[in-house]
Write a structure and sequence with these properties.
single chain; Jelly Rolls; six-stranded antiparallel beta sheet; five-stranded antiparallel beta sheet; 2 helices; 13 strands
């Protein structure tokens, strides 16, 4: 819908430029005969002057409309760039971990990646514009090991979720947060040391995020 509006606006701009050139040419033509007398010997200067005023008003009106269309085109382009969202799960079936240290998780099974801000090779989301973003994640432990999932922003731990099973059953956990991000800020997930997480075709372990609104100040 937005791209259709942009195409329509571009077409409208081209048409107005055509009319603008046409009016300028007409103005030049009228100016060239401004001092030619009519059949009664009366100069056409007064008529030409009125035509000039009318042309000037028409040109000013067209210029105003042209400026408005250009501003609308820029607004639509920016609105298109504000569409940022992703959703992914761990790619391979099986157990991840346990590892001897906290380890970055790469969610390579991408369901959607509008705006291409999420990198499925590194598992890192990089904010393309300043604004408020919402992130959520979930996971399931691999019995009998605990699961400890951590969400980071620029190497700083923000939130986490944890399961500590007392038996050989699967337990799930999840968490979410809204974050103010600057351009270039990175958000990603880690698996805590000495814990594990499980995933299969049902995509139990996921990482999602989207832009709530942009901050243009």
């Amino acid at each position: 819908m937005i791209m259709t509006s942009i195409s329509s606006t571009v077409g409208s701009l081209a048409m107005r430029e055509f009319y603008l050139v046409l009016l300028v040419l007409l103005g030049c033509s009228y100016s060239s005969v401004g001092q030619v007398p009519d059949e009664t010997g009366t100069s056409l200067g007064s008529i030409d002057g009125q035509i000039g005023i009318d042309l000037l008003k028409a040109l000013q009106a067209l210029e105003a409309k042209l400026q408005a269309n250009e501003e609308e085109l820029e607004r639509l382009k920016k609105k298109e760039s504000y569409k940022i969202a992703f959703a992914a799960s761990l790619g391979s079936d099986g157990t991840y971990g346990p590892y001897s240290m906290d380890t970055n998780l790469v969610y390579s099974n991408v369901f959607s990646n509008t705006g291409n801000a999420y990198n499925s090779s590194t598992g890192i989301f990089t904010a393309p514009i300043k604004g408020l973003y919402h992130f959520s994640f979930s996971g399931i432990n691999s019995p009998p090991t605990s699961m400890f999932l951590l969400l980071y922003k620029n190497e700083k731990l923000i939130i986490s979720c944890y399961t500590n099973p007392s038996d050989d059953r699967f337990y799930t956990a999840s968490n979410s947060v809204s974050l103010n991000l600057e351009v270039g800020d990175q958000v990603y997930m880690r698996l805590g040391s000495d814990t594990s997480v499980f995933n299969n075709v049902n995509s139990h372990t996921t990482f999602l995020g989207h832009l709530l609104y942009a901050n243009l100040e």
